[in-house]
Amino acid sequence: MSAETAADLDLALRALADANRRAILRVIRSAPQPVGAIAEEVGLSQQTTSHHLGVLRKAGLAVGAREGTRHLFAVDTDGIAAVRSYLDDFWPGKLADLKTAIESQGAQDRG
Description:
The chain is α+β, with helices and mostly antiparallel strands. 69% of the residues lie in helices and 13% in strands.
């Protein structure tokens, strides 16, 4: 993993560590939403919601776009995919360990 990729991943994981930011991502994952609607849904002020959206954007987890006079926010699927890719690297080893443990238990049960 390059230093730049590691730094981007660190930003994303730090952003995801906050429950308010995870709540915001849940709100914007199905459709782009304006700040006011997001704030209302998660129970935060618009100013606080804007701050969290800024952190999510900097971390590559959210994107903003203008639609007329409204500024809409949506999940940045590329940023989410990078985090998922990192976490997915943990599963092959764990699945192999689970398979070994199950096979071992099966051998003990038969023996």
